[in-house]
Amino acid sequence: MEWYNIKCPDCGYGTELVVGTPTPEESFDLNEDFSHYVPVLCESCKSVITLDLFDKRREAVCPCGGKGRPLQEEELGKIDCPSCGGKRLKVDMVRKD
Ligand SMILES: [Zn+2]
Ligand SMILES: [Zn+2]
To answer: Which ligand is nearest to the CA of 83?
Structure first.
């Protein structure tokens, strides 16, 4: 799995995203059998969240009820700030297994 830190220098918005599949040890820690974490951009509240989309039949739905669009990893650096709409979001990979 990869952990990303996203920060907006304009408004201070920040969030952490997890991408990928947990290693067996992590699955054990998280008490999960199968997971595949995907960053999702909500089309209604514009938040970027992490959802477990292992089950592909499950729709990417934001906690706000909005429909989410799964993001490719390379898209992470191109999205606008969900909070202020700024275009200078800084994406750092903070950890990788
Ligand atoms: Zn939402
Ligand atoms: Zn911002």
So the answer is: 2
Output the pTM of the full model: 0.78
The ligand minimizing its distance to the Cα of 67 is 1
| CB contact at 8 A, 52 and 37 | yes
Between 54 and 50, residue with greater pLDDT:
50
CA of 28 to the centre of ligand 1 (A): 29
* Ligand in nearest proximity to the CA of 79: 2
> Could you give the CA distance from residue 70 to residue 35 in angstroms, rounded to a whole number?
15
How far, in Å, is the centroid of ligand 2 from the Cα of 89? 7
Question: What's the pLDDT score for residue 74?
Answer: 85
Tell me how far apart the alpha carbons of residues 20 and 7 are, in angstroms, rounded to a whole number.
20
The mean pLDDT of the chain is 87
| Ligand 1 geometric centre to CA of 24 (Å) | 30
Identify the pLDDT of residue 73. 83
Choose among 86, 92, 93, 94: nearest CA to 13.
86
